[in-house]
Amino acid sequence: MRIVIKSIINSEYAVSSEQGELVYNSFIKYFKSGALIELDFSSLKSTIAPFFYSCYGILFKDYSLEEVEEKIKFLNITNSTEITIKIVKDISLDFYKNKRAK
Q1: Which of these, 61, 88, 84, 74, lies nearest to 23 by C-alpha position?
Q2: Distance in angstroms (rounded) separating the CA atoms of residues 28 and 34
């Protein structure tokens, strides 16, 4: 399933956690059923970490790195967006790992 981010958030800027929640809610039932989710960032001018924590980082609360990487693909991203995604992934994995350990 391909999700065109701009069409979900109605903006060229993916910058808020609320926008991330909209995207998350648009795909999570398909993700849970095992579908491949392609997040298409074409026509976006800017993305920042709060958006990614709400639509991507939250997945690591309930799913392993392997499950998420197998089912989530990012399309049409810039180098800086790729770096942001990696940072969000690393921090989220650590955060949820530490929460489970308590």
Answers
A1: 74
A2: 10
The backbone torsions φ and ψ at residue 84, rounded to the nearest 5 degrees and listed phi first, read: -60, -45
Q: Which helix (H) or strand (E) holds 75?
A: strand 72-75
Contacts of 51 (CB under 8 A, 6+ apart): 14, 15, 16, 17, 19, 20, 23
What does the pLDDT read at residue 45?
96
Which of 80, 68, 75 lies closest to 40, judged by CA? Answer: 75
Q: Quick one: residue 34, left, alpha or beta (phi over 0 = left, psi -120 to 50 = alpha)?
A: left
Average pLDDT per block of 10 residues along the chain, 102 residues long? 97 98 98 98 97 98 96 97 98 85 58
Rounded-to-integer distance, Cα 88 and Cα 49, Å: 7
Cβ(5)–Cβ(44) under 8 Å? yes
